[in-house]
Structure formats: structure tokens, C-alpha cells
Amino acid sequence: MKESITLTDNRTGASVDIPIIDGTVDSGEWTNLLPGVYFHDPSFGTTSGAASAICELDGEAGYLRYRGHPIEQLAEQANFLEVAHLLLFGELPTRPQLDAFADEIAESASIHENFHKRILEGFRDDAHAMGVLASSVAALSTFYPEGKDVGDPAVRRTQMIRLIAKMPTLAASAYRRLVGTPYVQPDPDLDYTTNFLTMMFRPVEGGYEVDPVLSRALDLLFLLHADHSQNCSTTTARTVGSSHADPYVSVSAACCALYGPRHGGANEAVLRMLEEIVSYDQVDDFVARVKAGERRLMGFGHRVYKNYDPRAQILKDTAHRVFEVTGKNPLLDVALKLEEVALADDYFVSRKLYPNVDFYSGLIYQSMGFPVDMFTVLFAIGRVPGWLAHWDEMLTQNSRIARPRQLYTGEATRDVVPIDQR
Ligand code: CMC
Predict the structure, then answer these.
(1) Active site residue 263
(2) How far apart are CA 314 and CA 63, in angstroms?
(3) Most buried by CB count within 10 Å: which residue of 40, 45, 144, 217?
(4) What is the 3-state secondary structure (H, E, C) of 137-162?
């Protein structure tokens, strides 16, 4: 069997053979044969926008690998910072490498006093934490103008460390501002996730101990969210970064893309949906409304996965471990019943709609004490190493600025009518 396609331009009879390599065909050959003819693919469903060695997922088989390592093995044997190292630098760290990396991150975790006073304090009292986070990340650009030197690998590395380090501090500050309690400075003696939980929940009077089961569970959640190839927010980070904008505004743009309920905002939307369904016996009614097109089953479906999302399976198991400490989330029964009904229903089966990573994560976050407004912020903390790894990879590839074509559907040329005659 020949691994190629043949394209023929029937207007001219010219034809070209394009090899199929790793399931893709190069657009250069298309352009040579058909200048001025573009592939119309508005949601990029059939377009590969990047060559990347970071993350591989197969939606039919239902697997996810970071730099070749299966997500299940990473979930079992690594922590979030090890995975961040893997994504950014290509390999899991040795023990000394991990210690040095964790130290570097801990040293960069604090944020400037002016940040609290002048920027965070400027938001409305009820500002959504995700809006605060996206704006705060963009504001970092003004504190670190040297980040604009995106052609220098050493400068890029420093900004990447800063961003991973400061995300929990910004996130916890956004929460503290929301609930009106004083900010807590990062503690370099604590590990990444324990430090975040402490900045979030330590009372003013002190005396706060993080339960190691909860710290490990949240760390695992960060790890599971760390990358997912060319999703909407990663593509946004790459697109903005392709103009050679600095990493802070590129990551801020990615936060904005993540915020939407079709993407990272789904974890918040799932919880609100479960709260609306309230009880086990309302599930059938709700599913009927989804099938009638009145509602969407949030936390279900995925552009790429046409099988059970492997992250959802790991999260389902994690939820039980967390509930042993926190007590069972009363909405768990509604979620389990919803999953059971959907997976037995032809509407969902025929469309290959399965639970995704956002279906169970919100239940865990809520049981750990996070308000719903913080859920997507937690997703963002986890995803930052992935965004940065793709941004950095793109800049090492001599990439061109992202600039898709469009199919123009507007008016043909027409004269302007003077304002009094319109
Ligand atoms: N509930 C009900 N029907 C659905 C759902 C859903 N959650 N998702 C897809 N469908 C239907 C859709 O209506 C369409 O039906 P039909 O063929 O009759 O028109 C069919 O399934 C194919 O769906 P699609 O809209 O073409 O799928 P897409 O690839 O464009 O959208 C999605 C993917 C994730 C945006 C969508 O499944 C969705 O809105 N899910 C709910 C939101 C969600 O959970 N998002 C988190 C995604 S995973 C984490 C992340 O990436 O952030």
C-alpha cells in the first residue's frame, strides 16, 4: 500500500503525490499545486498546527502520554514538579535535579508588595477569581520586562520558572481577596502544593496543618492537568507567542481561553449542573433535556477522546481517597448516576460521549474547601508547565507567526454612500 495521496487540480490537470507521514500530509505541497486555494477548517478539527514532542494522546484508544510516559505511571510514581520538569526539559529529573528545580521555584514564588496593593486591590469585591488570575498574569509582564527577550533561551527559562512559581501565589491571593482575609506569603520550606494549600487556607492566627492525603490529591490533579497537546488554551498560548509577545501575556491569553465552559471552565459548570440537578431522582429528567438539545451534559464529550478520558478514571479513584478524609461529597451520588445513565443511553453511546477530566475534579475541589469560582484557577495552575513547554518548543522551531486564511463571505466591492443619503 502506498502511503500517499494524489491531488489533481481539475482546472489544469496538474497533479501531485503527497506522502502521508505519521497521519499527516504537508501543506507545502498543497500550496505549490494550488496557490490561493485554502483548506477551510474553522475549528482546526483536521489541521495540525504544530510539530511537537511533548504530549501524545490517542482519542480512539484513550491513552495520554507526556514525553512518552503513560499518564497512569506518572500519576503513580511522580509528582507535579517532576512532571513540570519532564514537560519543560524533556526528561524526568534525578533526585538532585528535582531538589534544585524545586528550590528555584520556591525562591521565585513571592510577588511584589505593589502587586497586592495596586493591582489585586483594584478589582471589584465580587470579581471572578479567573478574571483576576488572567489579569494578574498579564500584569507580571510589566514587572519583568526582560521577558520580552524571547530569543534568549536563558531568559525564557527564568520566566518559565517564575510563572510556575508565582501561579499558586497569584491564585491564593485572588482567593484571599475574594474572601477578604490577609494574604499569606509563600513558605519556601514547604513543597509546591502544600505551600499553595497553606497560602489558601491558613487562618490569620496560624496553626494550619495540611493533610498529606489532600496535598497529594491536589498535586495529582495538577499533574493530570499539566498538558494535553494542542487544546484551545495551548493553541492560544502558541498563537500569541508566535508574535513574539512575552510569556506572561501569552500565558494570560491561555488563561482567558481556558476560562470558557467548553474548556477549563467546564469543572465549574459541572458543579453548578450537579447542584441544579440536586438529587438522584432528577437525573433522568435532566438527561432527557440534554437529549432534547435544551442542555449540555457538562464534563462529558471531547474533541479528541472518543473513549473514556484516562484522566477521568484516575480522578474517580482519587475522589474516593479524598472523601475518606473530607467525608463524601453529597453530589457524588448524582454524578455517578448521571454517568451510569449516560453511558447506557444511545444518544451518548452513538456520539462517543464519555466523562472527561472535568466531570469529577470539581467534586474533589469542593470537598477540599475550594469555592466553585476557584476551580478553573486550579486547572490553570496545573496547565502552566504545558503552556510554557509548547511556547518554548515553538520558539526553538523557528516558527512563523500564526496567521490563518479566511473564507470571505461578505459583500462584493461597493461604493460608500454619503452619510446624508444612507
Ligand atoms: N452534552 C450533550 N451533547 C453533546 C455534548 C455534551 N457534553 N458534547 C457533544 N455533544 C453532542 C453534540 O451536540 C453533537 O451532536 P450532533 O452530532 O447531534 O450535533 C455531537 O455530540 C458532537 O459534538 P461536537 O459539539 O461536534 O463536539 P466538539 O468536539 O465540537 O466539542 C466539547 C467538544 C468538549 C466542547 C463538547 O463535548 C462539550 O461542550 N462538552 C461539555 C463541556 C466540557 O465538558 N468541556 C471540557 C472538555 S475536557 C477538558 C478541557 O479540554 O478543558
Answers:
(1) yes
(2) 12
(3) 217
(4) HHHHHHHCHHHHCCCCHHHHHHHHHH
Helix (H/G/I), strand (E/B), else coil: 24:
strand
Q: Is the pLDDT assigned to residue 205 strictly greater than 90?
A: no
**226 and 325 share a domain?**
no
Residue 416 covered by a domain: no
Q: What per-residue confidence (pLDDT) applies to 399?
A: 83
Which residue from 57, 229, 258, 297 has its CB within 8 A of the most atoms of ligand 1, so it is best to mutate? 297
Please tell me the distance between residue 354's alpha carbon and the centre of ligand 1 in angstroms. 10
Domain that holds residue 38: 4-58
Q: Looking at residue 263, what is its pLDDT?
A: 97
Residues 89 and 238 in one domain: yes
Task: Give the closest residue (by CA) to ligand 1 atom 28.
Answer: 303
pLDDT digits (tens, 9 = 90+) for 267-290: 999 999 999 998 888 999 999 999
Q: Give the ranges where 203-357 is alpha helix by DSSP (H).
A: 212-224, 232-241, 247-259, 266-277, 283-291, 310-326, 332-343, 346-350
Residues 216 and 357 in one domain: no
Q: How far is CA 60 from CA 49, 50, 246, 308, 340, in A?
A: 20, 20, 36, 9, 21
Q: How far is the CA of 262 from the centre of ligand 1 (A)?
A: 8
